[in-house]
UniProtKB/TrEMBL annotation:
<protein>
    <submittedName>
        <fullName>AAA family ATPase</fullName>
    </submittedName>
</protein>
<dbReference type="GO" id="GO:0005829">
    <property type="term" value="C:cytosol"/>
</dbReference>
<dbReference type="GO" id="GO:0003677">
    <property type="term" value="F:DNA binding"/>
</dbReference>
<dbReference type="GO" id="GO:0016787">
    <property type="term" value="F:hydrolase activity"/>
</dbReference>
<dbReference type="InterPro" id="IPR000212">
    <property type="entry name" value="DNA_helicase_UvrD/REP"/>
</dbReference>
<feature type="binding site">
    <location>
        <begin position="230"/>
        <end position="237"/>
    </location>
    <ligand>
        <name>ATP</name>
    </ligand>
</feature>
<dbReference type="InterPro" id="IPR027417">
    <property type="entry name" value="P-loop_NTPase"/>
</dbReference>
<dbReference type="InterPro" id="IPR027785">
    <property type="entry name" value="UvrD-like_helicase_C"/>
</dbReference>
<keyword id="KW-0378">Hydrolase</keyword>
<dbReference type="GO" id="GO:0043138">
    <property type="term" value="F:3'-5' DNA helicase activity"/>
</dbReference>
<dbReference type="InterPro" id="IPR014016">
    <property type="entry name" value="UvrD-like_ATP-bd"/>
</dbReference>
<dbReference type="InterPro" id="IPR048228">
    <property type="entry name" value="HelD_bacillota"/>
</dbReference>
<dbReference type="Pfam" id="PF00580">
    <property type="entry name" value="UvrD-helicase"/>
</dbReference>
<dbReference type="GO" id="GO:0000725">
    <property type="term" value="P:recombinational repair"/>
</dbReference>
<keyword id="KW-0347">Helicase</keyword>
<keyword id="KW-0067">ATP-binding</keyword>
<dbReference type="Pfam" id="PF13538">
    <property type="entry name" value="UvrD_C_2"/>
</dbReference>
Length: 766
């Protein structure tokens, strides 16, 4: 490209940065004022808050005033936060104002327009756009359009224009270090550069180099169910985050970050992705792991985690057929039918107790239920029954206010007990003795019946546990193995005795409970994202749909990275999802190109999988993966001790990835005699620098400069499912991959074409 083109562009960069600096100065002034205002309002608030609160008559007035003051504080604090965020954005723009440019012409008779695209928009003194936000409708053609006639959609419909030129920039600290024109979508050269640079503790945003197929996912607004099957490193997680930023930008008024929920694989991952949205000037969405979600909904029970089940599975095989069935769509459908067909005879009503007295008998509740309109749904009848019980409880409480046993009980209290009942220091507040004893009676009755109220609120007038056991038995009776289902039912009951619930049981159980009691729905969430979809059962998906009825779903994963179950066919999964969600507008997108790893690592990973996979490598050169043929643990340790310091010199983090947690703990412990190694567990939230050891399920979705697959022996990686696990391990590496056999190499290693890796047999005299 001509030097004066670059000069011209650099002058424009300088001009834009000068404008950014002006805005920074003005905004810093505004921030100083805003801060002063916040301080003033806060001071005023704390002065007011301490006035009058102990003079009863003024209390309510003061409260209203305090409320107002509080709102004022919240508002000024918010103004300050917004200004700070805008200043952060300007600071970014001052160094790197934009990354792309498009030249367009709507009609031959009108002049061409040059539009620059960056992470956020910037307007000049005459309100002209110096930078367009990458999410603006017109920016779509930067990502999607090849030169020539292009279409793009805007809120007011589809528009067309002529794309004359597309230019990419790398700007570092205000200087264009690289720029070139491209007639395709975002060019490879830029991406090469971006991918070669990556070695961060946190995931980076990819807005400068979003690829066309990723852009379709990010900008999709048509579908209520979007399923993405993408090979390892194809940018699924990146697409989720960029998509959230896109959705927030376009629905600013209706959508807030709190209404978006992401199911993420573990806490390390949650932390790893936490910087992407703030770097785009947006707030983070809510995140939850499956374990935390289930535990919150099954309070009081210890829910087995996916990791615990995975570790247990390595030791003993459970009845696979039952597990598969319980995770299926048809099982959840059978469960819904079972609930729909329940009647007052088959519902397991339970007595509600107050200490050891029955307050509402199962029979009484059953009677109320039987009086509900026959054609209402089971859930609706149950809700009406519950409301009736609560009404009756309130009536009992009202009667009790006058009852002698209540006044007797109060009179029998010690001074201390009494003070506790009405509130310390409260006695002097009453205008008359009568008012005081009325208040005391009300408090006493409230406290007396509180447990019953809680029991009703929590639906303890039903025995959902027995109901679920009944369902399991009844379901089993129609199968070829009723005795196995009997055992399953017993296993459920036994776990309960220990206040535990197995992972396989948790979701169907919650579904039964919610359908029966008409509960468990969160209507606030507008968008639900599930990453690593292959780790979820269809039953869990059905439950998500039930639990988040208002949400649009974006579900992403890679069926080849199935750590916890067998690989399932994507099409079958997608069809089942469509049925389960009754989705009107569903779409399946496939991403085959892998960006994370070097070409050599991707080729090696691809070779581990069955030959019919469609993985394509992005051309970024590196060196071949190395397979170290160690005979036993001693020689593996010897090799690692010698080579880890060298690797660490080159890369900030070296991750030793094992199949299980005990294996990670063991190798870390041995290595620690020679060098520092950190073992990561399910509760860790951050990935430290240095040598780390962790089981693969905790490394889900993460990436490392250098990954070492440890113990790729025939005993540890034996089955077809293990090949999927090793594939997941191998594809965590960005730049360098080592595999240590630790004994006879696994069969999938021996069948791989030799040219795809470097085989190293360590000599013993090391
Ligand atoms: N268009 C892009 N531009 C720059 N980097 C990209 C692009 N797409 C993906 N990457 C990078 O490739 C890596 C893998 O992306 P990401 O983690 O989103 O993939 P994934 O499909 O979720 O992978 P996995 O299934 O293995 O967890 C990340 O470092 C990401 O920044």
């Amino acid at each position: 490209m001509e030097a004066n083109e670059q000069h011209y562009e650099q002058l424009r960069v300088d001009k834009v940065i000068a404008e950014v600096k002006l805005k920074q100065a003005a905004m810093t002034q505004q921030l100083v004022h805003a801060h002063q205002e916040t301080r003033a309002v806060e001071r005023n608030y704390s002065d007011n808050a301490s006035v009058n609160t102990f003079e009863i008559d003024d209390a309510s007035e003061t409260n209203a005033e305090i409320q107002q003051q509080r709102q004022l504080v919240a508002r000024v604090v918010e103004t300050e936060t917004i200004l700070k965020r805008q200043l952060d954005t300007l600071e970014q723009l001052a160094h790197n104002p934009y990354f792309g440019k498009i030249e367009i012409q709507d009609e031959p008779s009108v002049p061409t327009e040059q539009l620059y695209i960056g992470t956020s928009s910037l307007q000049g003194p005459d309100d002209d756009f110096l930078i367009y936000d990458w999410r603006a409708p017109i920016a779509a053609i930067y990502y999607n359009g090849t030169l020539g006639h292009v279409k793009f959609s805007t809120p007011s419909g589809s528009q067309e224009t002529e794309l004359l030129n597309k230019r990419q920039f790398t700007i570092e600290d205000g200087h264009i270090t690289n720029m070139f024109d491209t007639n395709e979508t975002v060019g490879d050269e830029m991406l090469q550069y971006a991918l070669g640079q990556q070695n961060d503790e946190y995931m980076q945003n990819i807005v400068a180099t979003i690829q066309a197929e990723q852009n379709d996912i990010i900008r999709d607004t048509q579908h209520d169910l979007l399923v993405v099957q993408g090979v390892a490193g194809s940018g699924k997680t990146s697409a989720i985050l960029q998509r959230i930023a896109f959705l927030l930008y376009h629905a600013r008024a209706e959508l807030s970050a709190d209404q978006i929920l992401l199911f993420s694989p573990n806490k390390l991952f949650s932390n790893y992705i936490a910087e992407v949205l703030p770097s785009l000037g947006e707030r983070n969405m809510r995140q939850v792991t499956l374990t935390d979600f289930l535990s919150a909904r099954l309070e009081g029970l210890k829910v087995q985690t996916l990791f615990e089940r995975y570790e247990a599975q390595q030791i003993q095989l459970p009845t696979q057929a039952i597990r598969t069935t319980m995770g299926s769509l048809s099982f959840m459908q059978a469960l819904a039918r079972y609930v729909a067909n329940l009647d007052e005879q088959t519902i397991e009503f339970a007595d509600v107790y107050l200490v050891d007295e029955v307050i509402f008998s199962a029979y009484h509740t059953q009677l109320i239920y039987s009086r509900q309109p026959a054609n209402a749904s089971v859930g609706a009848k149950m809700l009406a029954t519950k409301n009736q019980l609560i009404k009756e409880l309130k009536r009992k409480a009202a009667h009790a206010l006058e009852a002698a046993w209540v006044s007797d009980a109060i009179n029998g209290m010690s001074t201390e007990e009494y003070e506790q009942l009405i509130g310390i220091g409260k006695r002097d507040e009453f205008s008359s003795a009568e008012a005081e004893s009325e208040y005391a009676a009300a408090k006493f009755v409230e406290r007396y019946y509180q447990g019953v109220y809680d029991a009703l609120f929590n639906d303890y007038y039903l025995d959902v546990y027995t109901q679920f056991t009944n369902f399991l038995t009844e379901y089993g009776a129609n199968t070829k193995e009723p005795e196995l289902w009997e055992l399953k039912a017993q296993q459920f009951q036994t776990a309960l005795e220990y206040h535990q619930i197995l992972l396989d049981d948790a979701t169907p159980f919650m579904y039964l409970r919610d359908l029966l009691t008409n509960s468990g729905r969160n209507r606030q969430i507008q968008h639900l994202f599930v990453d690593e979809m292959q780790d979820y059962t269809m039953a869990q998906m059905v439950y998500f749909k039930h639990a988040f009825p208002q949400a649009q779903f974006t579900i992403l994963g890679d069926n080849q990275q199935a750590l916890f179950a067998d690989v399932t066919a994507v099409n079958e999964f997608y069809t089942n999802l469509q049925t389960a969600f009754a989705a009107k507008h569903a779409k399946l997108v496939t991403l085959n190109k892998s960006y994370r790893s070097t070409q050599e690592i991707t080729a090696f990973g691809k070779a581990l999988l069955p030959a019919d996979n469609h993985i394509e490598a992005f051309t970024r050169k590196g060196h071949l993966p190395r397979v170290i043929m160690t005979a036993d643990e001693a020689s593996s340790v010897q090799y690692l001790t010698l080579h880890l310091p060298k690797l660490l010199n080159e890369y900030g983090t070296v991750a030793i990835l094992t199949k299980t947690m005990p294996a990670a703990t063991r190798i870390a412990q041995i290595l620690r005699r020679h060098l520092p190694v950190t073992t990561l567990t399910a509760t860790d939230r951050a990935v430290p620098k240095g040598v780390i050891a962790l089981p693969i399920y905790l490394a889900k979705g993460l990436e490392f400069d250098c990954a070492i697959a440890y113990d790729v022996s025939a005993t540890t990686y034996a089955t077809a499912n293990d090949a999927a696990i090793l594939y997941t391990v191998a594809t965590r590496a960005m730049h360098d991959l080592l595999l240590i056999t630790n004994g006879q190499p696994a069969p999938m290693l021996t069948t791989i074409e030799q040219a795809l890796y470097e085989k190293i047999v360590p000599t013993t005299e090391l």
